[in-house]
Amino acid sequence: AMAALATAACGRSGQALPEPLPARAGGYERASLETIPTDRAPEPLRRLGVAGVQQAVYRGGAEIALTAYEMTSEAGAFEALQTWRPAAGALAFQSGRLFLVAESAQAGRERLQAFAEAIERR
Length: 122
Fold this sequence. Notes:
The chain is α+β, with helices and mostly antiparallel strands and 122 residues long. The chain has helices spanning 2-5, 43-48, 74-83, 108-121, and strands spanning 24-25, 28-36, 50-59, 63-71, 90-95, 98-103. Helices cover 28% and strands 34% of the residues. It has a six-stranded antiparallel sheet with strand order 1-2-3-4-6-5. The chain is globular.
């Protein structure tokens, strides 16, 4: 599913990813899903080329917010990961052209890591 997610057509601003973020991942269920206009992506990411943005909230042992930025290239996603500033309660990772940020006030680093790995396996 992630491969399909990462192969969206480039182009129009605010275009939705072709398939939503997974409904379930690592014991978490998606509670909400929203497509975000690309112009609301952080400026450094827009400079690297954002084709689409989705935001989902997952509930399981804790609540995790996941933002997926579909970049126009895999190199752009990799550069986004390299230049992202780590923050408490947040974990960034890359899967193909996707640059993803998982955030949670309650989950802790190990749970965020396990959640990220579950998302990457899809």
